[in-house]
Each structure stands twice: as C-alpha cells, then as structure tokens.
Design brief:
The protein is of the alpha+beta class. It contains nine helices and 13 strands.
Length: about 325
C-alpha cells in the first residue's frame, strides 16, 4: 500500500466549532408574474453568460430539469420538453395543474423525455408553522437524486416517501390511479401507516419501449457516458484495430453496468451486445472518418435488446435510438 501524508496548510481557515441553522427571511418583490422569456432567456446570447433554459443548454452535466408550476406560464411546458428532446441528455419533471382534481387532469402531450406528477402537496411553512400548498416536483427531483445515489439510475423512483409532505391537495384512490396510470400521470398517494409516497414511475410516452422513467433515464446515462467516453476515437485511424479497441472499451463499461444490476440477464451476452465493424459502417463512412457503433441493452428482460447507435467523427458526434 502507499503511504498518504496529510498536513495542514498554512493560513487555512479554521472549521467553525459552533454552526447554527438560520432561516432566510428575505423576500423577492416582483412587480409582475414571470413570463415565458423569464424562463427561456433567449435574449442572453454571449457564450458562458446565457441564462434560463438557454443557459442550461450550455451545461452538459444536467440530467434533470424542473420548473415549478410549469402550466402556470403559457407555452412553458412545450419549451421545457423541447429543451430536453433537442439536447437528448436530460429529463423533465412536470407538476400537475394546480387546483384541478386528479380525475380531471389531462395528459399534456406525448414525450419520452418527461414525467408528470399529481397532485400538489402540503408542507409546513418554517416561518409561520402553518400548512402551505406547493408543487411536488422539487420533492420528486430530490427523490430521483436520492434513488440514483442509493440504488442507481436504473431503479424506478417509485414507492418512495415524500419527505416533508404532511398532506395532499387531493386524495387519490386506487380506482382513480387505475385511470391515470395508463395516461402516464404518476400519482402521489397517502397510505395509512406508510406515509405519503410516490406511486408511479411512468413517462408521458405512448411508446411501450419508453413508458418507464428508469428505463428512459438509464438510456440517457448510458448514451451520455459512452458518447463522452469514446471521443478519443476521432484521433485514431478508422480501421479494424480501432474497432476492436472500442468494442472492448464499451464492453467493459457495460459489464460493470450489468454487474450493478441495471441490465437483465444471467450472462453479459443476455444483457447487452456491442457491434462495430463493416456492418455498422459503409465504406463512405470509413473514408470520411465516421466511426459508428451499434449497442443493444436489455433493461427489462434478458435478450430483449433496446438498440441505440453512436457515431463519432472529427468535430462532432451523434446518438440515435
């Protein structure tokens, strides 16, 4: 083993001994309600200084996007979903329409890049001690993050306690959920003795391949990881030696993902495949430095592969499903 020596640097700040929690009491005064461009900020055009969703587009590390009360601003939902569909590396959390009973909620559109949660929740205002109604999406984003850390992105973010919630805007029965669930509307329900829990993990997609949040987000993770991890290939000769090296690299990564329980199958062969050869590229692709790899993974059932393709070339890359 290697010896690690730790020493305190001169002038380093001391760790405070008495740390107290202080509630922030200041309030922001707005002369008018936020409008669409307050969220989009298309007026900010300088790279590195863009704001709103326009600025988010420059940040590659974002995987979850949430805007409270999305339907409170006209056309914000469409722009938020378009943001995720265009970038293809992030997922949107959507709040149900406030004050609309669950049975009257409508599916807002068809997309595999978003999930909707109903209803809003009551929490305790730390300043007044009284109950206030807030959209649930911020809590859902926290549940996503907690589940990602504790179990992995492949675990469905459902049957999870909504910490901090004391009651719901509307109570949802099993019969109502049975109607909402096929529409891709995820319910938050109160269970006696078990607390308030997220009781659904569906996207807003009508495509059966993409109906589950965890499958969609697992693919976003795999695609982003492999696309970024294979950028080195554009500087290598596009030949069979490179294809073999690339296949080995991706296979090692997917084997770790399989061992973590994210892919189904008793063997790696049942869990995934990687193909990079003359069948995935034309001679024109090879001559022009385009390297294309075909990847299939089985997130639901062994040997039932969902396939995506990653292409790398000098100056760019592309993921397609």
């Amino acid at each position: 083993s290697n010896l690690i020596q730790i020493k305190k640097l001169a002038g380093a700040a001391e760790v405070p001994e008495d740390i107290q929690i202080t509630a922030l009491e200041g309030k922001i005064s707005c002369e008018s309600a936020p409008e669409l461009n307050d969220y989009l900020r298309t007026d900010t055009k300088v790279p590195g200084q863009k704001k709103g969703l326009t600025g988010f587009a420059e940040i590659d590390d974002i995987s979850i996007v949430y805007v409270p009360n999305t339907f409170g601003v006209k056309n914000l939902y469409d722009n938020l979903v378009s943001h995720c569909e265009t970038l293809k590396d992030r997922f949107a959390i959507i709040d149900a329409v406030k004050a609309v009973p669950p049975q009257d909620q409508k599916k807002p559109g068809d997309t595999k890049y978003a999930a909707l949660y109903c209803p809003w929740i009551h929490v305790i205002d730390p300043n007044t001690g009284s109950k206030i109604l807030v959209p649930a999406g911020g809590f859902i984003a926290g549940i996503y993050a907690r589940s990602d850390t504790e179990r992995g992105v492949h675990k469905a973010p459902a049957n999870e306690i909504v910490k901090g919630a004391v009651s719901l805007e509307f109570s949802i029965s099993k019969s109502v959920q049975d109607v909402l669930n096929p529409e891709g509307i995820n319910c938050i329900r109160a269970f006696g003795g078990r607390g308030i829990r997220v009781w659904g993990a569906r996207t807003l997609s009508s495509d059966s391949l993409w109906k589950y949040v965890n499958v969609r987000r697992l693919f976003l993770y795999l695609e982003e990881s492999i696309e970024e991890g294979t950028q080195w290939v554009v500087f290598e000769p596009n030949d069979e030696k490179l294809w073999a090296r690339l296949k080995q690299s991706i296979t090692q990564f997917l084997t770790r993902v399989w061992k973590d329980g994210a892919l189904m199958g008793r063997t790696p062969e049942e869990a995934f495949f990687v193909k990079c050869d003359h069948t995935t590229m034309t001679q024109d692709d090879i001559d022009n430095g385009r390297l294309i790899v075909l990847i299939g993974v089985a997130p639901v059932k062994p040997a039932e592969f969902m396939i995506f393709r990653i292409a790398q070339w000098t100056g760019g890359s592309q993921v397609s499903e």
